[in-house]
Amino acid sequence: MAALKLENPWKANPWFESVAVAQERARKRLPTPVYDALVAGSERGQTIAENEAAFARIGFAPHVAGHQAERSMSTSVLGCDISLPVIISPTGVQAVHPDGEVAVARAAAARGTVMGLSNFASKSVEEVTATGANTFFQMYWTGDRDVMVHRMQRAHAAGAKALIATLDWSFSMGRDWGSPEIPEKVDLKAALRMAPKVVTKVRWLKGFAKAGYIPDLTAPNLAPADGGPAPTFFGAYYEWMTTPPPSWEDVAWVCEQWKQLTAADGGKPFMLKGVARVDDARRAVGAGVDAISVSNHGGNNLDGTPATIRLLEPIADAVGGEIEVLLDGGVRRGSDVVKALALGARAVMIGRAYLWGLGANGQAGVENVLDILRGGIDSALLGMGLSSIDQLVPELLLVPDDFAVDATRNSARA
Ligand SMILES: Cc1cc2nc3c(=O)[nH]c(=O)nc-3n(C[C@H](O)[C@H](O)[C@H](O)COP(=O)(O)O)c2cc1C
User: Fold this and answer.
1) Is 285 exposed, middle or buried (CB count within 10 Å of its CB: 0-12, 13-18, 19+)?
2) Between 351 and 6, the higher pLDDT residue
3) Positive or negative CA dihedral for 298, 24, 28, 12?
4) Mutation test residue for ligand 1: of 151, 300, 301, 333, the one with most atoms within 8 Å of CB
5) Separation of alpha carbons 99 and 127, rounded Å
6) 3-state secondary structure of 301
7) 200: burial class by Cβ within 10 Å (0-12, 13-18, 19+)?
């Protein structure tokens, strides 16, 4: 009788059990500059590290019995029903996977959540909404007003369900660990120069070979109204850098424009992303927004901004009764989501977590990440004896006394 050959079932199994494992797979699979572009961060990397670390300072005190057999985590964000309180935060994905944002959108739709699409995305808003995913289109403050109106019109016509304006960018880019090289265009010259970092990543290359093209670093959603070619990533960045920064009147203007041009659909909702202070949250309400995301751009922006989870409760207390308050930054597990909801968030947005999933295993990897978060949320609800995310309140958490930061009060004292 032939000897039974025991195979390690995990070896060929692309499923991963945590976001950390997805990150490690993505690191191994992607060319170093591509992986480093996802890690991102800025300056000394303080904020990116604190976003994640701060969640670990909050604890739970679970019950031993009296748990609930049925637990619900469905909710809605800006009028879209979602099956878990997690949505996809917009990221300029670059060359992680041939299907890029289309794969992420399919995963979002398959798992019953919302796709946030960056205006620096590698896929057009039309391709992404064609997946059937509820899509929120994200815009930076870049270009003149006619250009911005054209971009909003295009997103609306493509079926975007809401607009996210991300305004916290301060172009603070230098990194102590050095930034990855991003070529202006992936032509033969750039391909040869980068070849040593890329040729060893056979599985990643095979994905693009199968799709029949090389990574494209243009920004199709920033193409001009006259039908001209889409700018390269650097062309788009130049436009952004040379646009005068927005005032609060500009915030009200962009919100109003979006409401007007979507009036026939009842005035689609508008989110301001990047709020890190109570006074800004109040101004956002005054500017007419429907939602904010308490965000520091995942630590990619001004380094030294506190972890968003520490900023959340004072902001949610101030404006949570008037608008929807979301949080993004450092969410890597379901228990992080539960902590954010208990401190006042309606839902969270994830960035790197799904990028690691996409890099590790394409659409299935993003679905895998959403499943991990769903499982973690459910475990936390079970342990705390809750039957719904609606029951989450701060008193359920063990939070250190010095945890919450009201950046408005601190800077007023300074
Ligand atoms: C590689 C990368 C690209 C990003 N690009 C954008 C973008 O184009 N627009 C935007 O609003 N935010 C962008 N963000 C920020 C995310 O939307 C989100 O705020 C952040 O990733 C949340 O932190 P997390 O990665 O720890 O989840 C980007 C983040 C990363 C990591």
Assistant:
1) middle
2) 351
3) negative
4) 300
5) 10
6) coil
7) exposed
Ligand 1 site: residues with CB under 6 angstroms? Answer: 38, 40, 51, 89-92, 118, 120, 138, 166, 273, 295, 297-298, 300, 328-331, 350-353
pLDDT digit string (tens) for 89-118? 999 967 789 999 999 999 999 999 999 999
The C-alpha atoms of residue 306 and residue 295 are separated, in whole angstroms, by: 10
- The rounded distance, in Å, linking the Cα atoms of 143 and 240 is 7
- Structure pTM? 0.94
Residue of the CA atom closest to atom 21 of ligand 1 = 351
Token reading at 347: 């839902």
For residue 197, count other CB atoms closer than 10 A to its CB.
Answer: 17
How does pLDDT run across 69-86, given as a tens digit for each residue? 999 999 999 999 999 999
Q: pLDDT tens digit string along 179-212?
A: 887 766 656 566 666 666 676 777 777 787 777 7
The neighbouring-strand residues paired with 88 are 350
Q: Give the Cα separation of 31 and 197 in Å (integer).
A: 6
| CA–centroid distance, residue 198 to ligand 1 (Å) | 24
Is the separation of the CB atoms in 116 and 136 below 8 Å?
yes
Interval between CA 298 and ligand 1 midpoint (Å): 6
297 a catalytic residue: yes
Nearest atom (ligand 1) to Cα of 118: 8
Q: Identify any residues that bridge with 347 across adjacent strands, giving them in sequence order.
A: 326
* In contact, 398 and 60? CB cutoff 8 Å: yes
288 conformational bin, left if phi > 0, alpha if psi -120 to 50, beta if neither = left
DSSP track, 243-280: SPPP-HHHHHHHHHHHHHHTGGGT---EEEEEE-SHHH
Higher pLDDT, 385 or 235: 385
